[in-house]
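Quick one:
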Amino acid sequence: MLPAPATPEPRQAIQVSDAPTPFPPTGPQHGTVDTFDSHACLGTIVDSAERRWPFQGTSLVDGSREVDPGTPVTFVVARRHGGTFEADLIAPLRAEAVRAGVERVLECETRRSIDDAIVAGYQKHPQTEADAHAATASLRAAIEEEPW
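Output:
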């Protein structure tokens, strides 16, 4: 039996009165994902000034709603209801994006090489007339056995 997912900590919103001056920071910020709970789709980012910014998984620009703690990211600070601020428009840094892109290319190349090997096998040993008749007969027998 799988253990129950951990109960997420309540979101710690930063109030305007808690903010250092000047606040909020404008423009792209750099930070690192500190926590992320995929069940609650909530996490926190620590910026270069050691401030913690809560965020929702829907704020990830790649649409994945998943991010690993320790991932370096860029983000902007957005004001939310009640005077709170959150990280928004969150994107992995270019190096992380390049790594993910390289992994995707490798995955596609692996699949392509498997496809090429299958095609080469059929080209080396093409289907004979007897193979085609046997396959058709087997298919007909399987259909006839079904209790339609």
